[in-house]
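Narrative of activities, Objective 1.

The group set out to show that a structural description can be obtained from nothing but a protein's sequence at a throughput compatible with the screening campaign. Below is one input-output pair from the validation batch, recorded exactly as produced.
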Amino acid sequence: MFPSASPILAVLIAAAPVAVAPEGRALGLADCLRLVVAQNPDVAADRLDVAMGRLDFESARHKYGLFLTAGPDLTRSIRPTGSSFLSGGVSQLQELDQTYKLALRQDLTTGGNLSLSFQNGVVDTNSKSVDINPAFTPTASLNFSQPLLRDFLSGSQAIEIARVGAQQADLRGRDKLIKSVADAETAYWQLVAARKEIEVRERSLVLVKDLVRIDKEKAKAGLLARLDVLQAEASLAVRESTLLASRRTLAKAEDKLRAMIDPALASPAWDDGITPSDAPTFRPRPVSFAASWQTAQERRGDLATSVLERTRTQTMLDQAGNHLWPRLDLQGGAGVTNLGNSLTGAVSDLPTLKNYDLRAGVALNWPLGHSSEQDEYHKSQLRAEQSGLNERSTRQRAYVEVRDAVRDVEIDTMRVAATKLARELADAKLDAEQAKLKAGLSTNFEVLKFQEDFEQASLEEVQATIEFLQAETRLEQVQGTLLENRGLVVVDAAPAAMTYPEPAK
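Output recorded for this entry:
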């Protein structure tokens, strides 16, 4: 139902070298997204969060590996003795006690452990009463310990919690990457809109300048009142001021996109213009809330994360409930030993099992009175209840977001058609009014008014198209399909990789 997140999501760039942000040349949307994913520091930081989540999981698994213990233990003692029976007639007893140990221990995810050890003791003394000197005592033993109540399966629970945490980090990283891509695409289209606005205002400014020039010539010839010239000049001043504001908006849009692409702070790229090479194209497509919501339930990372969080808190609740039990450990072991005056002879007799020991027992540890584990269990109950409420809230929020996104696409589709018709009508009205002005049937005031109407209608058409593209981006974002639709495909592998479209040459 949800996107697979078993391996870590690693955002790696394809084998081709990453291009530097284009400086003073055209930048396509695919190149823009590639550069953002490759160079944006926020995206890089999100990759590290994903990597740390995977390392937490690996660390939890590695706690239950095989451990080797080895080392000597040497003791040299010289002490007086008051018994000639023990010392064999020497007044000062000297001993060299050597112990060499080699052991393997396997910690089990069931909460217990299993160990196999070999130990050899060597005692060399000056006592005359011992029969074997030096004495070799090799010992081989197998021991185990297993909790029967508290901490039973504690390792499996810890690994499961870490595994779910790694999946959540993976999904959160994917969601953050989707947001970064969506923000970059929105910034790209905002830059396109700013450039289109300047184009419209510059065309309008040229028309008004021509009108001012013509009016001044008519005024010199006595064919036009001075007031009409002042009206045209005032309109020209307003348009020049508006154009300057539009250029400021363009500069801000360029800086916003540059910051996402992340050129070096001292790079000349901060002073070079960015010319988007992709034009805003209106391609209407049918949308359905039912289909979009179904896709969102299958692809959205936050929905999957909330379900995983409920699983994680339930495992933590089970773990806390297990800690309410007393500790009852089953312990046992078996060993063989021997004694000889040479290591080879003593070890060779071990398989005969002449000297052995068997051990078995249980150990009970029961806390009396109120314990901190009871408090932790109640907290775990609250966390589990909270995760259920958070899941419900997340689904509700996602439901509303998909509804809004589908509605925006539907409405913006109609707005593009409506603004296109309005611009065409405004253009026709302006042409007609200019023809009337040439025939002396209209005034400058009326022409300027129609000129303003045409300029506003042109800007509204551009803005409606840009908002339609942004609405489509938003719909793909809330559906969780933006990466795949842009060619940024997550590959479930270890490590995972992503492929990107090649930049335009």
